[in-house]
Amino acid sequence: MSDEEWERFLRESVKGVDGAPVEPSARAREVERRLRESSGQPAGWRTYSPARPRRRKGWYAAGLVAGVVLLAVGLFPQQVVGWFGGDDGGRDGASSAAESRGPREAPGAEPALRPTLAEPFRGSPAAGWADGAAGITVPPARATGWMGTAQVERALRQSRDFLVAAGLDPRVLRGERPTTAIALLNPHQNDVQEYLHSALSAAAPAPATDPLLLFSRFRPEQARLVGDVVKTRGRLTYQEGKRGAVEVTADVTFVYPVTAPGDSGQDAEVVRTIVRRKVVMSWDDPAKVSTEPGTMSLVSYALDMTNGGCSAPTGYFVPPFGAAGKQPTDRAHRVDPYDRSKPIDTDNGTAARSADCATAIRS
User: Fold this and answer.
1) Cβ partners under 8 Å of residue 146, min gap 6
2) How many other CB atoms are there within 10 angstroms of residue 25's CB atom?
């Protein structure tokens, strides 16, 4: 090798030549090894690759629909119930949604099943209704008239307490004096106090002073309640009344399954006495009306009943055991006692006991 060639070799060894092979670094050799061992691309440095979601056919659409339905139930419960078969929903035992507004139609037809001691509400829309006070819907309170929100809330609670004491108290149902309910009535309302005296002391009350207009009562020697459950359905509403009072309206249907005393066999007859009451209560401003704290005045009260008796008033319900076909009935006047979409029929209550009873299409 000449001196010129040797000198060029040394110079190229220091500077490098384009295209000449380069010895890889230790990191480069490690990366190359990983590439050979892996069939896929290596993950980038400091990068995050989310796990690929598993595909479940239909779950995305179903989840969206379920979310929309849940939202609708929360915002419009009564309307959603109507999508699935009317306001009262269930069939013989299926629970119905609470009545938050006036129903638009009667509940659907039920299977024609005879009530029994074990299942006294079988074959009736009441089978899906709530028990006792739970079936009386109380609306949210807001400041109204002379009352603030907390006072309205208390008035609504006490209004429901009155209905419970008058229509669900076991002692009252057995014919005892409705002491708890009376304690919630304004003692300075003279006409109501006179009604109470006449209704609860007379052996044979007149239609206008029949205690059944406000209180549910059975003679123990004539009828006994089957079990300890009374089914109810209804609601309270309220508005500002006269002189700034808070006027609460209750529209509630009670279903009482009863049987004759001593009738306890498998073939025992069970009759459902169905009572719908509309009571308007006024929680008055004590600065404007003579009243007592925690009491209210009655504005009006009306009754509509089925299987409670068609003869002159006695002050007690008289279920027609073994005589359903013998009682005089008005065949031209047919009613559905479970239809809460219509106004209460005051002509079929105790005020019209002298006339024939209407014909109930079901009980």
Assistant:
1) 244, 245, 246, 285, 287, 288
2) 9
